[in-house]
Write the structure tokens for this entry.
Amino acid sequence: MKYILFDEPTSRTALLPFTFTRPVADIRMGIWTLTEKWQHWLQHPVSHLTEPYLQTKFPHITGTDNLYINGAVCPTDALVAAIQGLTDGQALLTQDQTLIAVRTGDRLDKAPSATDFTPVYTAEAPVTLRQLPDIFALNGDQIRADFTQVTAAHERAGRTSAPLTDPHSRVYGAGNLFIEEGATIRASVLNAEAGPIYIGKNATISEGSIMIGPFALCDNSTVNWGGKMRSNTTIGPFCKVGGEVGNSVLFGYSNKAHDGFLGNSVIGEWCNLGANVNNSNLKNDYTNVKLHSYATGQLEDTGRLFCGLMMGDFTKAGISTLFNTGTVVGVNVNVFGAGFQPKHIPSFSWGGAAEGFSDYRLDKAMYVARETVGRRGLPFGADEEALLTAVYELTRAQ
């Protein structure tokens, strides 16, 4: 059997700019990406059915028996059992008609439609990623869910949390703390009384740091000296963070290394926030935050009082850049300068509110992206160039 996570078209559009550069299921929410969650529950590799320009990097692998699963849905044991119980030609739907999965011997060239299959209904109401603020709004509960799975897997393998040996660190709620091998913690306060704290392999928590659970610091990431990590926050792998971060998600390979506030925000991969970058996450008049919609091209009501910065991959923000409440920044943007930045900055833009914006030349943007990835010792080849070129062309066509 082959398992394929598909991009539901409405969800994919709603989750731009992050889905410019990845399938929906490669969004991180909790400790893991949705792809990693499904691979854990299924105990089997998965592939993706996504946009054609993404398929080289995220291949679509099929056989004679295929389970296509909605990549925006978070798995549970009951849901996995229901999916695996489907027979050829059946579709699994929730009571509100959300398509969860289909089983077919055919290779599909686009996201499946429930009308082409025999419906089977589940009483489950799974956690489903539908819009940008869901990434941070659902993050705390997903940290809890993933923490349960991670620790249970370790227990089955006969492993326990690595000990916290530093005599100058203090832990509250020690039963909710899990430390992977190779992690280093120095003179810090970890409060897991209200939710679990997960510290990944070779992660570093530097002197004077404070973190409140639910909190996840993934493999090889660092909290710099005096960092204040508030609850419901995930720092993905190979990130460096400092200052104050609350109810936010950094996907991976991104830096917010200095002082400044980041709240109710989502930062993609390969981003850098300069010293004293700050964002607003609450309006002074306490009205709902509006957020740029790629579906309508307008600001749309999120229904939320708190919503901060949504920043696509490969974007850089210069020192002391200020982002307004509910700002959406696209892929490969270089933004800097005085004053609050616009509520939406399209992909491949260069400039700032005071100076104005111009196009970020593709050759220059590609050079910076190549250098950014190369500094981490990772390859940046033809597939990555083709992907970013496709995003550039999509942006210019809008």
Observations:
- The CA atoms of residues 302 and 311 lie 17 Å apart.
- The mean pLDDT is 97.
